[in-house]
Q: What sequence folds into this?
């Protein structure tokens, strides 16, 4: 892969948002708009009902786990089989060795809310403590790790874009406590087998900005940073079995 992004080209692409080939006219801002400024005919956004509290799903969210069952998920290694993780008391828990789980539905650009807790009984250290992960499109990992008083490499700690970018701060709560990720992800775009827009991700960890529109250089891998390979616009979300009984609850997603 010989694609290099200069700062100006990345900014231009990000400014262009979903229309990667669209260029923005900064000399004449009005030229970018279909609607005159403050046009009363301009369509209003849909009304939705927000959750009663900010972490609860709004009315237009797709619920991926509501505390009851893993019906929105399946086994990654045996796609005909149900998700093999344990559900109890309103959360589910990784069953070490059973493998990753993936959503039955596919998603691309999205807003994702997910809550997790590392094991209350601390075992292991570094990458061996409370390790799991949220793989956007099954390819791009936001790390889940017990990073509370647990030294590891910066680009592998909780809320890192694994192998690529550490979080801006360590906002980790203590083991056993529930933590939130709110993730805004824009999927990469490919045309004719070539990357025309890289993925970017913004992450709030326990309400704190920790990834500020990070532009991913490719999919996640261990000890390497492979380039992008063209893929579909939507792919299943996956959660990682890294051998630790990490818990999850209250998962919802809003396709963008
Ligand atoms: Mg992980």
A:
């Amino acid at each position: 892969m010989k694609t290099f992004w200069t700062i100006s080209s990345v900014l231009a692409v990000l400014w262009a948002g979903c229309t990667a080939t669209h260029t923005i006219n900064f000399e004449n801002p009005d030229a970018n708009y279909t609607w005159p400024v403050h046009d009363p005919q301009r369509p209003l956004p849909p009304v939705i009902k927000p959750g009663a509290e900010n972490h609860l799903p709004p009315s237009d969210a797709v619920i991926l786990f509501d505390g009851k069952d893993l019906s929105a998920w399946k086994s990654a290694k045996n796609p005909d089989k149900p998700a093999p993780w344990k559900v109890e008391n309103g959360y589910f828990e990784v069953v070490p060795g059973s493998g990753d789980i993936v959503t039955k539905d596919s998603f691309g650009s999205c807003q994702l809310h997910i809550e997790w807790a590392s094991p209350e009984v601390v075992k292991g250290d570094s990458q061996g403590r409370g390790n799991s992960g949220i793989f956007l499109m099954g390819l791009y990992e936001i790390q889940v790790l017990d990073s509370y008083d647990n030294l590891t490499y910066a680009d592998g700690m909780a809320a890192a874009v694994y192998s690529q970018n550490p979080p801006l701060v360590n906002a980790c709560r203590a083991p056993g406590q529930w933590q939130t990720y709110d993730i805004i992800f824009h999927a990469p775009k490919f045309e004719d087998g070539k990357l025309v827009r890289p993925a970017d991700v913004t992450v709030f960890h326990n309400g704190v900005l920790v990834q500020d529109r990070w532009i991913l250089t490719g999919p996640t891998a261990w000890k390497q940073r492979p380039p992008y390979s063209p893929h579909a616009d939507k792919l299943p979300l996956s959660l990682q079995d890294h051998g630790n009984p990490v818990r999850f609850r209250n998962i919802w997603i809003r396709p963008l």
Summary: The radius of gyration is 19 Å. Residues 7-16 form the longest helix (10 residues). The mean pLDDT is 92. The chain has two domains: 1-44, 46-255.
